[in-house]
Amino acid sequence: MTMLARMTKSVFMSALGLAALAGGEASASDGALSPADQAVVAIAAHTADGNLSALKADLNDGLEAGLTVNEIKEVLVQLYAYAGFPRSLNGIHTFMGVMDERQAAGKSDPVGREPSPVPADLDRDRYGAEMRAKLGGRAVIPPPSGYQLFAPAIDAFLKEHLFCDIFIRDNLAHTRRELAAVGALAGMTGTAGQMVFHMNAAMNTGVSASEMKSLVQVIRTECGSDRADAAEAVLERVLRDREQKAKASSGS
Length: 252
What we know:
This protein is mainly α. Helices cover 74% and strands 0% of the residues. The protein has 14 helices and no strands. It has helices at residues 3-23, 26-30, 35-49, 52-64, 69-78, 80-83, 85-104, 124-135, 147-150, 152-166, 174-186, 192-204, 209-223, 225-250. 37% of the residues are buried.
């Protein structure tokens, strides 16, 4: 990211911070993601695309915006499921360096809480299937189809590792987990299909349409027009489909 882009981002984040002070949360007053949620998106995008210099700045932004150390760790750990272990580990090492620098400068950041213990008798396959259905806006678990039948091993990994082992960790809200997922997918190429699911999941966990448009603007600032235009095209499709489904369910 250029110096001009970093300055523009700083002004944008500051404006949202003032809005939050004036009206509770920024999202409540102007429809934009809060500075902390913007940082989640940016951290995820640059962990996924491997831009570690930009990631370092975003990690500092996130801490300054109020994210705890453990919340950021959760974002970085989660991203192994989207960008792979190498990018996730690179992000973690970058965060370690940021923490060393901040501690050397005398800055003290809130650590945040650890996740709650997981029940010993948890049915991970069932929990993951139910979580995936809930995020997808379904009241019941649909029967397996498509890739789930063709490659059942990947379906088991998705349910047990991503939607259970990760999503059951309750020290990062599901809303922020989905913002991180969309941010990571938007930072990469060839992920439109997965973005459809996770944009819907983000909105099913409480992210508004205007906040999703704000997410695209974060991608535009952080990753450039190509990545943002691709994410915007997916979002337009998602919003159009959701509107059509809402009209159909209301009978209008």
